[in-house]
Amino acid sequence: MSKGLRHLRRVSSQQLRAFEAAARLSSITRAAAELHITQPTVSVQLRELAEAIGEPLFEAAGRGVRLTETGKVLHETVVELGACWQRFDARMAEIHGLERGHLRIAAVTTAEYFVPDLIGPFAAAHPGVEIELAIENRDRVVARLEKNRDDLAVMMLAPPHLDLEQVPFLDNPLVVIAAAGHPFAGKRIALSRLKDERWLMRETGSGTRMAAEQHFQARRFVPNVAMNLGSNEALKHAAAAGLGLAVISRLSLPVDLPRGNGAVAILDVMGFPLRRRWSVVWRRDQAVSAAARRFVEYLRASQRTQLRARI
Ligand code: PGA
User: 187-204: per-residue pLDDT in tens?
Assistant: First the structure.
């Protein structure tokens, strides 16, 4: 056993608590009241502590007590000990949090093309963490954030009315698609030339739709909207069937989709792709669990590796 610990063996935690309170309050009576024990008990604890140390710790001062020089040094040590113990507690919470944690993530629908892939290795590395993933459109993810239903949310456009911590971790290029063989496929075209085309839009409440509308408005472009569709898959099928053009996340399309081949083609429209990013966000007014913190670190690390290869 180390010398320090052998010394500590003669000292009890009750004695140290009594000492800390008496030192802080400069009074044995008040220390006893704070600790809900009798004054003689505190006096006995302090006497035993002084005997273990081998020197007096307090001296009388008016109606109260004050620390001797040795008492001051012991007080500093006790304060330090308290801080050390707090750090130990925090580390323990972290370890247990990751062994038996729970992680609730809400992700927007465009993120469903990569979030499950990301969760896989994380779940394998932390088998005790139970993970729940909810996939919703932006409006519904915002509603979940308002109700504080999840630990983390993955989205492109964070709502400005909530006080959120935000870590961008992946590019989300938004492209224009059309049926393969569309007359504009393979040509560079200005957005204005697409005003007579039929447009397919995601439903109201979708972040993809919001990003497309913001871009169109900034360019004073009014799309001829033929249809609103409630999912990225429906959007792709409708575009492939020649029902119109659509703005969609590049990550929702096959990685090796060659322009002009396959069921849909990515049109080379000026101003596109729209350069947006996905972020992981969480409420600043809520404590972040150890599992959530670890997942954010993991996302930051992943950003630099395999995910970029998908775009
Ligand atoms: P959404 O996702 O279109 O499914 O809402 C986009 C986003 O907000 O990132």
Answer: 999 999 999 999 999 999
pLDDT of amino acid 261: 52
Q: Indicate which atom in ligand 1 lies nearest the CA of residue 139.
A: 5
DSSP state of 51: H
How far is residue 30's CA from residue 64's CA, in Å, rounded to a whole number?
9
Mutation test residue for ligand 1: of 206, 236, 248, 279, the one with most atoms within 8 Å of CB = 206
Q: With both helix axes pointing from N to C terminus, report the angle between 13-25 and 28-35 in degrees, rounded to the nearest 10.
A: 130
pLDDT of residue 93 exceeding 50:
yes
Per-residue pLDDT tens for 164-173?
Answer: 999 998 899 9
So what's the pLDDT on residue 240?
Answer: 94
DSSP three-state, residue 150: coil
pTM attached to this predicted model: 0.68
Contact between 102 and 150 (Cβ < 8 Å): no
Bridging pattern class, strands 130-136 and 264-269: unpaired
Q: Does the beta carbon of 211 sit less than 6 angstroms from any atom of ligand 1?
A: no
Cβ–ligand 1 distance for 276 under 6 Å, the answer no
User: Does the C-beta of 97 come closer than 6 Å to ligand 1?
Assistant: no
- 186 CA from centroid of ligand 1 (Å): 27
Q: Where does 26-152 have alpha helices with state H?
A: 28-35, 39-53, 69-99, 115-125, 138-146
Task: Evaluate: CB of 208 within 6 angstroms of ligand 1.
Answer: yes
13-26 burial, b at 16+ Cβ within 10 Å, e below that, comes to: eebbbbbbbbbebb
